[in-house]
Amino acid sequence: MADDWLFMSAGDLGRAIGAGRIDPVDLAGAFFDAIKAHPLQTRIYARLTEARAMAEAEAAAMRAKAGTRRGPLDGVPVSWKDLYDTAGVTTEAGSALLAGRVPEQDAEVLQNATAMGLVGLGKTHMSELAFSGLGLNPVTETPPCVHDPEAVSGGSSSGAATSVAFGLAPGAIGSDTGGSVRIPAAWNDLVGLKTTSGRLSLKGVVPLAASFDTVGPLCRNVEDCALFLAALEGRARAADLEGITLRGRRFLILENGLRDVREGPMAGFERAVARLTDAGAEIDRAHLEQVDEAMAMSAILYTTEAYATWREEIEARPHLMFDQILERFRAGGTFSGADFVAAWQKLERLRGEYRRLTAGFDAVILPAAANLPPKADRLLSDHDYYVTENLLTLNNTRIGNLMGGAGITLPTGVPSAGIMFLGTPMGEERLLRIAAAAEAALT
């Protein structure tokens, strides 16, 4: 029976706890047993928080028996990307620059989730300082793709995705600055939610580029994303996903995101679009110049802020960093303050134009990633390949961050090929409802 729990959705586990069919202590124990027995667990988890988790599970069990559960996920385990501060627990963001860093208090979203009864299993590996979409990290560990242990799992929430995909957590909390929730979710056939910048607190979250950093869950289904979003905000009530259909819904295929898409991801996207159409959705297509203009400023916007944030630490000990990540950070030193401010002013104008042009659609859709997970060995040995694959990986997801709205990726039925839905700023509940209907059509 315990083995069955490992691949149940978080929502189903929560309902079973509420019905008295699963004890939270037994559930947490089952996950720790599975983690410790898994041959790849050290490539997925940076460290476990077993003592804390078992105490949280015992408290959840007492609440379940007393009929005082705090919410639908009370007693359900979760993994945390290793950039969320955890009181008394090493939090290193995948970087030797932060080796031995032990925060004194939990990140605010971790506090909220704990208050709602979630049980923290441990901290998962990630790309160094979250600055890569590939998930390759020779400094700490490189988590494996669920379909190929020799391939990367996507980044930067690499261990977050694999903890769920391998049945070592019911859900995971990652972060997304340019695609870091949606890429690993897509490559491991999960659902990944990018929230709107400012929707969830970044207090106690190790930053990359705070103007774009967002908190988001990686889950088995859309319902779980809705449940985790509510828990991260300290709410018991999640978005209502009942009664929504795709009939009459309008989606815009953003043709900017179809360039350079390889065969596997394109096959998954076309299959998904056909299913959406069969379910009654209306599909339009357009190429938006505003997106191209925004993408052309990505290097200025991302690398300048990232390097400004980390320059002091980086230049004090650059030899501790993976050379590809170091090179990417240092690129931010080539732009002036005037370049950066002008780019942000232009981006705000482009965002307004984009929202006006897409206002008549329920969501913008495109392949989550243009490529499939590359082999880790080749990425390590071929500099040019690393650069081109990393940029291609993030090409579509960055559109969502640059345009400033919520986004979600769903599996398409083709391994490691996701379809991404982009919505409006602070429109997570509406986007989750649309995604729930799309999920039903795709499965």
TrEMBL record:
<dbReference type="InterPro" id="IPR000120">
    <property type="entry name" value="Amidase"/>
</dbReference>
<dbReference type="InterPro" id="IPR023631">
    <property type="entry name" value="Amidase_dom"/>
</dbReference>
<dbReference type="Pfam" id="PF01425">
    <property type="entry name" value="Amidase"/>
</dbReference>
<feature type="domain" description="Amidase">
    <location>
        <begin position="30"/>
        <end position="432"/>
    </location>
</feature>
<dbReference type="InterPro" id="IPR020556">
    <property type="entry name" value="Amidase_CS"/>
</dbReference>
<protein>
    <submittedName>
        <fullName>Amidase</fullName>
    </submittedName>
</protein>
<dbReference type="InterPro" id="IPR036928">
    <property type="entry name" value="AS_sf"/>
</dbReference>
